[in-house]
Design brief:
- The complex is a heterodimer.
- Chain A is an all-beta fold.
- Chain A is about 0% helix and about 50% strand.
- Chain A has strands spanning about 5, 10-15, 20-25, 30-40, 40-50, 55, 65, 75-80, 85-95, 100-105, 105-110.
- The radius of gyration of chain A is 13 Å and the shape is globular.
- Chain B is mainly beta.
- Chain B contains no helices and 11 strands.
- In chain B, strands 2, 4, 5, 9, 10 and 11 form a 6-stranded mixed beta sheet that branches.
- In chain B, a hairpin with a 2-residue loop joins β6 (about 55) and β7 (about 60-65).
- Classes of the chains: A mainly beta, B mainly beta.
- The interface of A and B includes residues 33 and 105 of A.
Amino acid sequence: EAQVTQNPRYLITVTGKKLTVTCSQNMNHEYMSWYRQDPGLGLRQIYYSMNVEVTDKGDVPEGYKVSRKEKRNFPLILESPSPNQTSLYFCASSPDILYEQYFGPGTRLTVT
Amino acid sequence: GQNIDQPTEMTATEGAIVQINCTYQTSGFNGLFWYQQHAGEAPTFLSYNVLDGLEEKGRFSSFLSRSKGYSYLLLKELQMKDSASYLCAVRSPGTYKYIFGTGTRLKVLA
């Protein structure tokens, strides 16, 4: 089944404890992206990747890191999480920039 | 930068027609996407418009006017399952970034 998977789906952590949210797609898509969704603010892009080893900042990259070592995987790293990073996170992929994005199921992160 | 405006909430009755509007800045336009998002779920793709005019897909249609920086999503024969948020998105001019509107929450009443 063609899909985007994210893990974990739910995570409660404490300030400063490094964490990684994994994202994987099995559709051989070139473009991958991370978003956060907050009430009243909608979906905001954190980072995106045009292809392996090619990543760039979205609108809200502060406090996040990404890597794209393989085409299928695009992990999101929070080196020192803070409470303002409590949010719902979505990973997405598309064949390239001109096509619709397929979203993962989301990761609900709470930082206390 | 790019700015997208959508109404925050709309209410309609089962069986009716509803139009959800989206306005955006016209410079460097590269196409406009509509997504549907049910509460607690991921967004799913509905439509993509890059040229002026109406694109019809069953009960859903999407319209684009590039000169006016305006799009709308038209939902016909509303069903209870259409209660969801509808997100409008464009690519930020000259970049590979996407900008989403804050979404329109549609409530369909029996």
